[in-house]
Amino acid sequence: MLGFLLRRALWFAITVWIVITVSFFLMRAVPGGPFDTDRAIDAAIEKNLAARYHLDWPLWKQYLQYLGPFNLDETHGATLAGGDGSSSFGGVLVGDFGPSFKYRDFSVNDIIAQSLPISIALGTVALAWALLLGLSAGILSAVWRGSGVDLGLRLAATTGIALPNFVVALFLIVLFVFEVELFPVAGWGSLSHLALPGLALGGPFAAYIARLTRTGMLEVLSQEYIRTAHAKGLPPRLVLLRHAIRGGILPVVSYLGPATAGILTGSLVIEKIFAIPGTGTHFVNSALNRDYTLAMGVTILYTVLVYSLNTLVDLAYTVLDPRIELEEA
Amino acid sequence: MPGERWDLGGRDLEELLVEAREFKGESLWQDARRRLLANRSALVSLVVLGVIGLISFGAPLLPLPSPQALDLQLEPQPPRPPWVELGRGGWTADDYDELSALDGLMLRTRAYLFGDWQTGRWFGTDTMGRDVLARIVWGSRVSIVVALVATLCSLVIGVTYGAAAGLLGGRVDNAMMRLVDILYSIPFIFLVIFVLSLIMERRSELEDMGIRFMHVFYVILGLIYWLTMARVVRGQVLSLKSSEFIEAARVLGASTRRILFAHLVPNVLSIVIVYLTLTIPAVMLFEAFISFLGLGVQPPDVSWGLLAVDSVEAINPVRSYWWLVAPISCAMGATLLALNVLGDGLRDALDPKLREKD
Amino acid sequence: MGRVLEVEDLSVRFETRGGTVRAVDGVSFHVEEGETLSIVGESGSGKTVASLAVLGLVPCPPGVVEARRVALEGRDLLTLSPAELRAVRGNEVSMIFQDPMTSLNPLLTVGRQLSEVLEVHRGTSPREARVLCAKGLSEVGIPAPEERLDAYPHELSGGMRQRVMIAMALLLEPRVLIADEPTTALDVTIQAQILELLRKLQQDHGTAIVLVTHDMGVVAGQADRVHVMYAGRIVEDSATRPLFSNPLHPYSRGLLESVPTLDGDATAKLHSIPGQPPDLADLPPGCAFAPRCPLVREHCEREVPPLAAVALSQDGGERRSACFEVDRLRDTVGGEA
Lengths: 329, 358, 337
Fold this sequence. Notes:
The complex is a heterotrimer.
Chain A: H1 2-29, H2 43-52, H3 59-67, H4 108-143, H5 148-162, H6 165-179, H7 191-221, H8 224-231, H9 236-248, H10 250-273, H11 279-289, H12 292-320
Helix pairs in contact in A: 1-12, 4-5, 4-7, 4-10, 4-12, 5-7, 6-7, 7-9, 7-10, 8-9, 10-11, 10-12, 11-12
Chain B: H1 2-7, H2 13-22, H3 28-38, H4 40-57, E1 87-88, H5 101-114, E2 118-119, H6 132-168, H7 170-184, H8 188-201, H9 203-208, H10 213-241, H11 244-251, H12 256-292, H13 304-313, H14 322-350
Antiparallel strand pairs in B: 1-2
Helix pairs in contact in B: 3-14, 4-6, 4-14, 6-7, 6-10, 6-12, 6-13, 8-10, 10-12, 12-13, 12-14, 13-14
Chain C: E1 3-16, E2 19-32, E3 36-40, H1 47-54, E4 63-66, E5 69-72, E6 75-76, H2 82-88, E7 93-96, H3 110-122, H4 126-139, H5 145-148, H6 158-170, E8 176-180, H7 188-205, E9 208-213, H8 216-222, E10 225-230, E11 233-239, H9 240-245, H10 250-257, E12 308-310, E13 319-321, H11 326-336
Parallel strand pairs in C: 3-9, 3-10, 7-8, 8-9
Antiparallel strand pairs in C: 1-2, 1-4, 1-5, 5-6, 10-11, 11-13, 12-13
């Protein structure tokens, strides 16, 4: 267990380092600074800006500066974690992503702190929808295999996988906002603002989970130990709950990692459609506006999130399936 | 002795040998074709995809309005079905930019065949007065090309990488797969968006160097999707390498090259084809996704992703232009659905082990 | 001694896309207290399906089960409601299966799987169930039973797992134990131990055992009576000893001749029955064994031979065989003996 976690931590460190390094140098490899598109700035101001963001430094120094809490700034004196925007910021290793290039009054950390809870709430609602719809559809489909219910659910699932989430979002908006007027159109504020985007975001994943669950359940239901359970005289409900479901949803558990990553990605589009001020919206804007530090910050943050969630999922898997040894993972 | 009669079941050896000769095993592909042909939904999908492909390829031949002809005075016009207005005149070949030689030829053929006649507003027009049907048909070309090229990129990289890892084995394999694991745990799409936005900035400079943004776009999409392909191919190669029939071939003295091309390639090919058909819809979705964010296909080019953006903008509480939403959603949904169903069908046909239980 | 389990005219068919598969066709058998009845046949002969059908464990659809009577101590199981039938399963009649690797749930501990039998049928409290389960495990010869209760199936050897299965089946002292190929998946030495265990438990509790197997060796050591099944029908019914000395159906003889023996000529070819078992969806009109039979006559291919009593001079006891040519068979075998 401890060995597993240590090994995971090691690979985690390597992964994050690669992401930081690759994105940093990619960003700097492209000629031109972040302020090129601004209205004509005179040379003096531009020089000041460059100096403030250390763009006048050699590349290796900028990299070290970005990476960690290193004391490289001779003019301002050393501070470990970036306090006021003008001094050197702490560096990614202490969780400081530096100042935003576009929103000059905010640090990347401020922006993330504001928007991440919104995105996480949206993601959680989406995942909850996906699991709720996917698992129940998959189990029903497997138990009533071959029936009309099964056929209908499978058709819905195949369609759900095929449709882009923004198309799902459009239909939901037309249906529940304009036709039935059940939910507010867009924006952010209450839980009802999240229900619809969550459904649109979680829909395709629900479809995939339904398929995984159905296959997994059918696999388990054809196992001999299910026959044993019936032969022992257990009522069908108990056979399903105690013996079948646990094994049947194992594939879904290992899918949760990729699903979370997918939901984080999908939220870029969904946040844009529903005008939700989440991290995804900021990321898209930052990518379009060349707000390097913000874009990199979000990328790194999401790498960390996805990696940690994957590790959690692996841990959960070993709890559910005693045959899996952690050391092998 | 009664025992002797049991041996051959009372038949002589000749008879059994003849029977054995007549009993031919089906090859993997014959078997797969038979299974695919028996799968009705996969067949329907194949036909649907064939029709979509033909329409898309032959778009310049069809008497559609130009997808780029603007008519700025107009509000989006609702559809007028063919029985209300079948067609009208007024088409010119001028409203097209940058056509390939083949497309130009097709366009001239069309002009010869239909003159200036064009179809009416069967599916309505968009906010700039452009014909929705024409845009969907022309948009399919970009989407399909993006999907095919990017899938091909992922195919080349993934198969090479996976086969190399599987064949080399041992420590090299270990290291190569570790790298894939690392890449897997990176939320790639964020990096891709990031990179695309950087490239986008330098679009004109790149074009001066003779590199079209669209080409870079294809390759970058291909770069994301090779990971799964590499894993699958490597797994297949590894399991084949240690499988008994390869062992048998080796014992019988088959050369390495023969083992590679007569035994490994056909067996890996089947799984590659399956993942190919499942990658194409994923790439199409991703193109739509990226174009949606404004980082993919750029106007005046039109793709399904861009049309989806239009449709999102067409939805507002005051007035929703449903004809900007429904046709593109249906076109996209139908294509992706058909691809997925065909992919599932191929998987069932080619690899019974992976078969989803029915 | 009374008949504990009595099955009359049991038929099971599966409606599939490829046609109707008659897995079991008019089979009758019974087993008495303390007795072991063996049902023997090749794979696909319907023996497993028949045993599953007794407890209503054949999945329906696609299966269709029909029988005149399936009586447990005079009570007709066919007329029971699903809940009443469940009360019989694992309680009065229990089953053990072929592969102990797959017939235990890999995700639950042994203790959990054992105790749920008590929980469902007796409503035993968890603490009490634990004690009873440990006792059950020690009875089937599992050392340190208390510790084993917390083990998962994959942590036990194949033989241990089959012992767990047996303990589970015998926990409530059933009247009848249906054992479907209980030793097929095990090593030979373990096989002997498990069979020995079954014999001992049968003596202690007077359980009637229906032993389904394809292994004539197991039959010889365990069974009191034998039913030979072929293509869904019983083709021979005999006490064990006479069957081995004088099989009265060409198929039984084929089965016996395919068993290797030590005293035979080691260089001699091992006999096998030529041909394949018939397609159950497309049975020949006459005797199902006719295409593989060395004694076949024209008449066998037209009519199904009934399972009829055969008078025997030497061995005595009632024997039945479903073969028109049984007299010729007796001559050849008699000549050999």
